Each structure stands twice: as structure tokens, then as C-alpha cells.
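Hi everyone, sorry if this is the wrong subforum. Our group has a chain we'd like a structural model of before ordering constructs, and none of us has done structure prediction before. Sequence below.
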Amino acid sequence: MAIKKSQLYSSIWQGCDELRGGMDASQYKDYVLVLLFVRYVSDKYAGKKDELVDVPNGGSFADLVKLKGKPNIGEGINTVLSTLAEANGLKGVIDEVDFNDEDKLGKGKEMQDRLSNLIAIFENPELDFSKNRAEGDDLLGDAYEYLMKHFAVESGKSKGQFYTPAEVSRIMAKVIDAKDAKGRTHTVYDPTCGSGSLLLKVAAETPRGIAIYGQEKENATATLAILNIWLHGEPTAEIKKGQSTLSNPLFLDGHGALKTFDYVVANPPFSYKAWRNGFDPEHDLHERFDGFGIPPQKNGDYAFLLHIVKSLKSTGKGAVILPHGVLFRGNTEGDIRTSLIQRGYIKGIIGLPANLFYGTGIPACIIVIDKESADKRKGIFLIDASKGYVKDGNKNRLREQDIRKIVDVWNEQFDIPKYSRFVSNKEIKKNEYNLNIPRYIDTQEVEDIQNIEAHLKAGIPNVDIDALAAYWQVCPSLKKTLFKSSSRTGYSELSVVPEEVRKTIFSHAEFIKFRASVLETYAEWRKATATYLKDIGTTNHPKAIIQKIGDGILTAYENVHLLNKYDIYQCLMTYWEETMQDDMHIITTDGWGVGNEVIRLQVESKSGKNKGKKKDVEGLYGLEGRLIATTLLIKSYFVSEQTELKKLNIKLEQITSQMDELKDEHGGEEGLLSEVIDNDKIAKGNVQSRIKEIKTDVDYADELKVLEQYAAFFDKEAETKKQIKDSEQDLEQKVLAKYPVLTPKDVKSLVVESKWMEEIEVRVMNEVNRLSQRLAGRVKELAERYRETLSQIEQEVEKVTTKTSEHLKKMGFNF
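Answer:
Right subforum, don't worry. Here is the predicted structure as C-alpha cells:
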């Protein structure tokens, strides 16, 4: 039975992180990922013959489970891993890490408990990879990716370089047209493959598959790559390790020359100083620098780039991530760059935001190499995507809309002001082959210039109003509603008070019409999308589904003025990430029938004899539908019951408020309730005791009256709480009875229409609201900026100065 992927990954990470102790994340990942691998191959291949992976007796995850709690658990795990490695040619890969290392895992009982708990995390029955799909929705691959990203974040600046952010990898795979690969006869190569994420993103783009090759200098990182490749269903890939690609490239043809590939991708170490170690580039056996020149002694950026160029077939395509310096640095690097441009090898450059990568905070770019028809290339296509990102912790991250925009613009070669353009070879030559993106694309924001004359004589400059032309194009008469002509040419005045600006915009007929058109566009997309989504089942793949509906919403909002279609696309993609992706995983694994299921939530006891044990959460709020939340079910079928429950809760709040008012009025030291207040609280027993004590004494008549009033509130409160509890229990029983009788049609309607489509609509319309807020904010800003003239301000200053001087004189100060 499928569970939500996000919950699964999060629980794995949290469990592993808790067990890490003082060990660095860059080391701990080796233990975690190896166990994930063993669990996967055991689920997928154990007990089966003629499979790609042989899971022998004594080499399965079940054998690891048997070791839990045993004193020699570390040694036992090493034996299991060795057995599995021996059977599959994985010696030095999965058995490289030592599970019996006391320095890292502790001694005696500490190691025993830590490893037992670690195995228990992966023993979770919800971690069932036997039905893992590699084609479109890779549960395991995504889990690996999730863990790798978190380990990269936790490993710190110097140790997180093994992982290229998936967002960047996806862009690279798309801009080299990996989708055109014809199958295993086509090849992709990464000379600095790290954990293999780039290679796998390319493979994910190829519907007919591709042959994978990678080399990684660091043994531990190469191990990550091999595990990653296997876990993504690519065990035939070749990952070679232990040597620098520059000094000793390990992929050669039959004659000792470099093997060439159809595609090459790489994220080499930036400005690597030790790139010459192990070989003499002046006498390079592979002639990588011939005709270009030898890169600087202390900077290997162009050494990696030239290795990639040499490793491409005559029709090959490649993409490499390098620091921006390669675009403009001079001397030898300038000569190499000139030669590459003149040969037509550089097809395009994509400038990325700063602080995307885990090993460095500097901005980088993707250089796209294309040898095919290089001699006919007339220029280079540039994209400046440096401003499209979102903050994510202490790093920046590309959003789905940023990725999609880059890929769309690249594919169509659109010229977009301040974002992209095709630059001719003639213009590049004129700039002495300097490819620094700001030379060709001006991304500077238009300066908000202060108008001195307006400050002196008042009025809003028409040039500032005209700068909002995109709004006036959609709502032409709104401009006349907000502004009126001034007595001076070139200036206007606000027609409404600043506080009414947003209300005026929002209620204007043209803006209402615009909102209606956005809703109409959404309704058309919703109708077609809902029909498609209701037909999905266990033969569909979530990633293909989101691709289709994402394409659809971009097409729908292609020509809607004022709105950015990529902002609308992000509304969908954010909700997909938050909710729909998990739902879709469940539906495509178990079908729509899970919409009938409701589970009782559990919490862990924090104290008492049951501390640490799970217990049910009682009541209505302890229920959760696997696909349909109880709140959605109630909203759809039990509105009257919910309304009645809300009324009772409001009534309870009113009673509580009245009790607080009475306490505030009579709760002081001499107050009529002072005798029953204990630690600022009034207990019912104290009130009853005091009433009994003074009931027959006329001297306490006033106090008795207040106490009886407070006691009556206690009775009303108790009665209302009982009514609430009874109503909740009644509603709970109705909810529990409703889930099992939901028909497939009911489930699809609730999930698709009431859950997904309604939420996306809210988010789309929030984008429209943000437009009105931005316009209102700018109009009010202009009105406030020029509200007072300089002479008015000077007069006000003079008044304040005179008044202040008079006060000072009265106080005996003369100046």
C-alpha cells in the first residue's frame, strides 16, 4: 500500500539524522545510502532467477534484520555487504564503508543500538521497493535524490560538491536535446560525475534509453554514483573511479585515443588549481589542447572544457557548468575562448543565479557545446537567468517556473528584453570575443527617478503614470478614474484619496472584467484537465501527468495580458509539490479506491508507563482520509452538522469571554471574587465552597450574587462542552460511515474538483490580487512622494522650529 512520498522521505531523513550523533553528514551518508541500496535490491531481486542482481543467502536485507540487537552487529553487517558485493561485482563499492568502526559509530552498546536503530528505519514495511518504477515515477531514485540533497546541505561548503542541484541537472539534460537519443547505441558521458545525478537526469530525458559512462576521482563519491546508478535501474552503466579525468582519462577507444560520446555533461570543480597533477599538458597524449592553447597553470576551467570538446563526436552535444570568469578572462583563456567561438562550438550560454551550488556561492553559467553544423553557426544564444530563483535556507534554488522558462526560451530561441538574445559572431568579434553576459543583455532595472519639479510644485509626473502602461492596456479607463489632469502640462493629480486606491481598482468595471476573463480561462483549462485526471489509473506515471497538465496551463495563459504565464505555472507546480504529487503517487500505485479509506492518527506517548508507545488520537480530529481529508468530506456532505458545531464553539467562546470579563471586573485584591482566585485562576470547586460558606450571611450578599453568576457560567460552559462533544461524536460516526460508501465517481469528484481544482483556482486568483496590490502600491507611492511641495515642507519646518524655540525660551534657554 502506497504512502505519501514526502512523508516517507522525511521520516527516513529525520530518523537517520537523529542517529548520526557527532558524525559529519558527509561521512554518515555512506552508511545510510548503502543500507538503502541493500533494502532495494532485496525487495526487487531476492529469490528471483536470471535477474540483473543476485541476492545470495547471507547477502540480503533480511540477513541484516537478523543482526539487530546482537553484540557483533557491526562485524555482521560487513559480512552481509561483502557477500552481496562478491555476488555482483561490487567489491570496493558497497563494502567500502566499515560498519564496525568504533571511532565513528561508538563502542559496545552504543554501536549496537545505533546500528540496530538504523536498520529498523529501513525495515519500515512502508519502504516497499518491490514495485518501484524506473520509468517515470522512481520512488527509490527520488528517495536517493532527497537524501543526497540533504546530505549535501548538511555537509558544508567544502564537502557538498558531490551533488549538482537537480534543477540545474534537468536544464542541462533538456538543452542538449537528450530526448533525441535513439537508445543504448547513443552514449552520455560525465568526466567528473560526482554522485551521478547529472548522468541520471540525462537518462531520464531519453524515452528509449541511453548508455551511461562516468569517471570520478574520489573513491567515496564514485561509490555514491554507482549506488545511484543501480538504484535508478541502470546497473549496466560504467562508472570508473580513482583517477583524475585530466591526468588519466579511463574511457579510451581501441587505439588508446579518447572515446567519444554523443552527449557530455559535467559540473567540474570550479577554477581547480591542481589540474596539472599527474600529467604534462605540454605533451598531452590525447591532444586536447592542440589548436587551442594550454590553460593557466593554476586554473583548470578551460582544461575541463577542452576535454569535453575532445570527448564529443562530430555531431555531439554537451553542457558544462563553469564560473562566469570563463566568459571574460583574458590572456591564454581569452585565446582559447576565441578559438572555440571561431570554430562555432559554443551554441549558447545560460547565466545562473549566484549561490545555487553546495560547494561555492559564486555565480555560474551553463556553456552549451554543439559540434553539429558548428562551421555554419552565425552566433551564440545567451540567456541571463540570474534573477529567477527563490531563497531556500542559506542557498538559492531555481523554481519550476524558472526551469521551464529557461528551457522554453532556449528551445524557441526567443529574444526577450533583459532576459535573452541571439548575439551574432560579428558583435562578439567587435567585443574582442568577450562573452560576459551583461555586455549583451542589460538586466538593470529602470531607475525610479525622482522628479524635482514635482517636488517643488506638486503633481504626479505623467511619465511615471505612463510607465504603468501594461495595466492601462487591460484597463484603459481605470487610468482616468484614478488620475485627473493637473494645471501644469506633463503632470496629473490623484482623483481619489490614497486609502481608496485599491478599492477603486478592485471594484472598477474593467478590472472586474479582467478578473472574469482570467477565471474564464481557468474554467476552460479546468474542464479539460479534470476530465483527463479522472481517467488516470495505475498505468499512468505522475511525472508524465504533471508534464501534460503543466503544458496545458502554460498554453491556456499564453495570451492573457498582464499575467505572467510562468507565475500561473508556478501556482500549479507549487501545489503539485505540496499535495498533488503525493496524491498522484497513491492513485497510480493503489488506484482510486484508496479514496474510501480513513485512518486513525497516532501519537507517541511522552510520559508514564506507555512512554514511547503509539496511541490513537481520539475524536473527529484524529481521523485522516488517505486521499480525502475529513474536512473536505464534511464540507461536501455534512454542512449543517458543521454549522451547528461552529455555533456551539462560538457559544463556548462567548461564555469564556463573559467569565473573563466578570473575573477582570471583580478579581482585584478587594474584589468580590478575590477569595476564589488561585494563581490567577478560578476553580469551580473554590466557587462552590465559597458560596456554601457565605450563603446565609447577609453581609456577603453582593459577593454571593457575583459568585452565583460565575457558578452559572460554569454550568453553561459544562453543558456547552458536552453538546460539542456529542456533536463531534455524532459527526465522527457519520464521517466514518460515509467513507466506505463513497463511489468511484464520488471519490474522483471530491479529489479532482473539490480538492485539486478549487485550490489551484484560489492560487491563480491570488496572482490577480497581487497585480491589483502592486498597482495600488505604486499609485499610492507616487501620490505620497509628491503630496507636499518643498515650500509646504519648508513652511511646516518653520512652524515647528518657531514653536520649539518658544518652548525652549520658556524653559530658560536662549540661543
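For your construct planning: The chain is about 50% helix and 10% strand. The longest helix spans residues 744-785.
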